[in-house]
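We were asked to recover a plausible sequence for a given structure. The inputs and outputs are reproduced exactly as logged, with field labels preserved.

PROBLEM: sequence recovery
POSITIONS: 87
GIVEN STRUCTURE:
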């Protein structure tokens, strides 16, 4: 990297919003059963959206490289286990 260049290696893109009400949209053939954000890029991407089955809940899609996803999954499972153990 040259002087003055930005390091984009830790960039995280957040696309979408739960406020878009994706599951409330009906174009005449019924409301969607599933909504997925397709993304082909080398960066980490997170896509929050409203939840189809529950009010006041969100769904979050996460796109990462396989090794990063494996590490994220391990951390997520550990944190979730800690939350459940405290409850």
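RECOVERED SEQUENCE:
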């Amino acid at each position: 990297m040259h002087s003055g260049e930005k390091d984009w290696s830790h960039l995280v893109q957040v696309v979408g919003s739960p406020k878009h009400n994706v599951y409330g949209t009906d174009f005449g053939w019924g409301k969607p059963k599933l909504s997925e954000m397709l993304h082909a890029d080398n960066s980490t991407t997170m896509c929050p959206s409203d939840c189809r089955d529950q009010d006041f809940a969100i769904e979050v899609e996460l796109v990462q490289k396989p090794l990063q996803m494996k590490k994220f999954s391990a951390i997520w499972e550990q944190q979730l286990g800690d939350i459940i153990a405290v409850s």
